[in-house]
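Can you give me the bound-state structure? Components:
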Amino acid sequence: MTLRPDLTVPDPEALIEQPGSIWGIVLRRFMKRKIGVAGLILVTFMVLVAIFAPLIAPYSYTQDFIGQPGAERWAAPCVNFLGCEGTQHLFGLDGNVRDFFSRVVYAARVSLPLGFTTVVVAIAIGTVIGAVAAYIGGWVDNTLMRVMDVVLGFPSLILAIAIVFVLGPGLRNTLFAIAIVTIPQYARVMRASVLSVKEVDYVAASRALGASSTRVLVTRVVPNALTPLVVLGTLGVATVILEAAALGFLGLGATPPTPEWGAMLAAERARIFTAPHLMIFPGLAIMITVLGFNLVGDGLRDALDPTLNR
Amino acid sequence: MTGYIARRILIALPVLAGVLLVVFVLVRILPGEPCTAILGERATPEACERFNEANGLNDSIIVQLGIYAQNVVTGNFGDSIRFSRPVSQILIERLPVTLELAVAALTLAVVAGVPLGILAAQRHNSAVDVGAMTVANVGVSMPIFWLGLLLAYLFAIVLGDTPFALPASGRLPPGVRPDAFWEVWGLELSEEGLASNVAEFISNMEIVNAAISAQWSVMWLAIKHLILPTIALATIPMAIIARMTRSSLLDALQRDFTRTARAKGASESRVVRQHALRNAMLPVVTVIGLQLGALLGGAVLTETVFGLAGIGTALFEAINARDFPIIQGFTVVIAATYVIVNLIVDISYGYLDPRVRL
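Here's the bound-state model for the whole set.
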């Protein structure tokens, strides 16, 4: 019998975080934050667009409508739902009379994989450099880190431009250029992480048990350094997509007819005053994708940082 | 402190040397012959030979490296292959454009970013906080060139007939040619020499030139032309500074010294201004210094969108045309500035936070 039914005692069990794997806890804490969830929704949306591009886009990204009734270069959007009578072109037509909506949708298949691959390549190389530097130490550490400092000594976009000029334009070279300029940040984080866990007891124990250096590095040290790399890598995808779009805008990225948001903006730049829709949608697509990854990265950082309980 | 500064400089010097070496190597391995890039695809082998001889491209790579090192030390990068003019002269024309833009953008970023961050931290979890951070998050996620194009469309076309209209390209309206300040002052400028170079450099900053020579209408025009590029370039640094200020101040507000200040009865504004903010500004200062790289990279894009003849566009054109002397001279200036500013940030950080010096 309760005397005050309006007073409810909170269940003490619910106040304690359920035990589970570290990533289970991280996931729960991540899902509690609106900002990370919002980012996850944006990223999921763009990933789905990329995967199902052929189903979403009504036309191929190369198909032109030259000679068809009502099809003009830089035609404004025509949406049947809003009362437009002609053939439906949600985002209008571009300078080559191609369906702009289809091109913006297909471009997700270019930018997202580019972002992921570049970050994976940069992390793979960066972590090896950082781990080796920290583990061996001495002059190897010094040399490797000074080389990283030199790369960081350039404004990243300017170095990326120079590298693409050397390698030649194109998506693969964009990937390499941006990977190279972003390697140092991963190397530094990996080095710091390895240095911090190198001396802890379980690593010493592992070594005392006779495990080889490589084995200790791979099974004990690296997993513990992954946490900051996950956050940095997520934010890194955002950076890569922005820089790749910038290179595309300068005419150094994807080559025609590959649809790429930055290159699409550059191609229709001169139409800004007469056909603004050709400018708005690719930029919006870049912004949504980049914003999504930034928010997920922030959410992950908060979820992984136990001292941040705001 | 002296030891700390010396140590930072000792670390910075090899980095600078490495940067200069990378520039040299990158320029040499750029595909495409400078000869055909400059003289045209159908240049005869003889013409190419003469061209290479005249520009020192036939020397061995070691000799070229030596000449390059000498150029770096003396600050003389020879003549541009395309324009047949000294690189330093072109730098005097182009650098002020970028400098004016970068200084304006960094000022705007700090003036807008820091208060935005403070406001968000003070009203933590309020609508103001959420709003400010949404703006900041969207700000860092927007491509500079897209924001630039949108601003140009909005202010030059949509608002084109209203008092809010702003010009979207160039530094001054076509036809407006302001007098250099020394002419207004009635000074004679010698043909060469440091003084005339400095004077020319200053006069190429349109706003500064107009301000010191009291050409107010020109100054107003120049400011109006600079507004849109400045906003485009400032947005990302502003957002980063706002976020850093917020998180740093939030952290400081939870510290013991803040509680002590509150406990002794200090007013809330005094707690924030005198105690928390002072401690919170250290990482903010670093972040502000580190924005230079973003500004220089962003300048290439901003100058492209707004048709400004700064070092960003000059460098881009030079790489395209394989104009070695310009590429070398300009990248050296950019990279050296970058390394030196980072050095200054490091040193000022050590000055602000004694723990760093250890």
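A couple of observations. The mean pLDDT of chain A is 82. Chain A touches chain B through 41 residues (CB under 8 Å).
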